[in-house]
């Protein structure tokens, strides 16, 4: 914003409205397809008013992504090394699926950024995300070495969880077209739990 004074209630309200509107526009059209005019119209503000808070489309997008990345990493951070390994991983699956149900716009925003080569968050992916995934993959390896879960490739296990849970948000139209009246989130939790429980339960 134009100065460093604490924002007023109206300023906080307008900033929140801009970010919420931008989330709608970016998740629907991607970064390249979105315009400042679309975001301003969605927020119910004039373009000059919007540009008082954010100087460019890039600035709005970066603000959304910086907050989103932390949200996206939190469920993986929650894996506890002193918990039951299978239940910890199943809990992670449930949390990721819940995010797809409750934060579909955020998921599509993140997916659009990755499809475009992650130009605005590549550094965070190669540093923060990689460090966290390395840490949790090593934890899963220890659980496998201890015989507490079946041996699988830990990185591909994490990738599969991302794919199978975020699919319900990123391909929502396709999923609902196939299922018709059935709520995708009615059957998904049991299916994914059965899948990962069978995959990870150690065999005699």
UniProtKB/TrEMBL annotation:
DNA-binding region per UniProt: 35-54
Taxonomic superkingdom: Bacteria
Pfam families, sorted: TetR_C_3, TetR_N
Coiled-coil regions listed in the entry: none
PROSITE patterns per record: HTH_TETR_2
Family annotation (InterPro entries): Homeodomain-like_sf (IPR009057), HTH-type_TetR-like_transc_reg (IPR050109), HTH_TetR (IPR001647), Tet_transcr_reg_TetR-rel_C_sf (IPR036271), Tscrpt_reg_YcdC_C (IPR013573)
Sorted UniProt keywords: DNA-binding
SUPFAM superfamilies named in the record: Homeodomain-like, Tetracyclin repressor-like, C-terminal domain
Record's keyword annotation contains DNA-binding: yes
Protein's UniProt name: TetR family transcriptional regulator
HTH tetR-type domain ranges (all copies): 12-72
